[in-house]
Amino acid sequence: MLIHFNDMIKTVSPNYLLIFLLLIPNFLLANAGSPMIWFSFLHLTWINFIIGAFESKLLLDKFNLQNRKWLIIAANYISMFAGYYFIAPHFSLLNGYPDFWGIKSRVGEYELGGFFIGFLCSFLATLVIEFPFYWLSLKTKQKGWRSLKPFFTVNLVTNIIMLFIYFVIVAFGAKW
Predict the structure, then answer these.
(1) What is d(CA 108, CA 33) in angstroms, rounded to the nearest whole number?
(2) Is 40 in contact with 84 (CB distance < 8 Å)?
(3) SS3 of 138, please?
(4) For the chain, where are the E strands, in sequence order?
(5) Cβ distance 88 to 173 under 8 Å?
(6) Residue 110 vs residues 103, 107, 123: alpha-carbon distances, Å
């Protein structure tokens, strides 16, 4: 008697299939791609909007700075693209780690030193790239430290959150 694959799939409970797949993790991860890349895609498409809106709200609520939210959001998209796709991988490579995204690294080979250096350089570049947008977004211009402190503070907060998220993604399969 010939059993068709589709008939066999219909008779297997989804719970048994899930348990079966969980028992063979190497099979599951074979073509899954790097979680850092998939999260970065989500970051590039949606999370930047949330980050920009959050930064705009922090500027208003904590520092009483009226701003144009769309400029803050645009700054986040531009700096994220430049930082994560050019600056962070470049500085990671300069520090001896060519695989910032963890695409070619096996579990346990990904080096966190290059990741942190790349992320720090990306943060510094974020400050340079986003400041003109921030300055243009302000409805009332500030001078000196009064304009820099809010900008630096909100960017520090959001970048620490993102560093933590990306660290959690890569830390368990990495080494120092």
Answers:
(1) 16
(2) yes
(3) strand
(4) 110-111, 174-175
(5) no
(6) 9, 7, 21
Are the beta carbons of 92 and 163 closer than 8 angstroms? no
Sequence-ordered alpha helix ranges (H) in the chain:
5-11, 14-23, 25-29, 35-42, 48-63, 69-82, 88-94, 112-137, 145-171
CB 48 within 8 A of CB 15: no
For the chain (176 residues), the mean pLDDT of every run of 10, in chain order, is 50 56 50 56 78 94 94 91 77 68 59 76 89 93 82 94 82 66
Q: Would the pTM of this model clear 0.85, i.e. be above it?
A: no
Nearest partner of 126 among 166, 171, 94, 86, judged by Cα:
86
The answer to whether 88 and 119 have CB atoms below 8 angstroms apart is yes
Q: Residue 96, by phi and psi: left (phi above 0), alpha (psi -120 to 50) or beta?
A: left
**Are 137 and 67 within 8 A, CB to CB?**
yes
Task: Round to whole Å and give the CA distance between 145 and 163.
Answer: 25
Give the count of beta carbons closer than 10 Å to the beta carbon of residue 167. 15
Comparing CA positions, the residue from 123, 118, 120 lying closest to residue 90 is 118
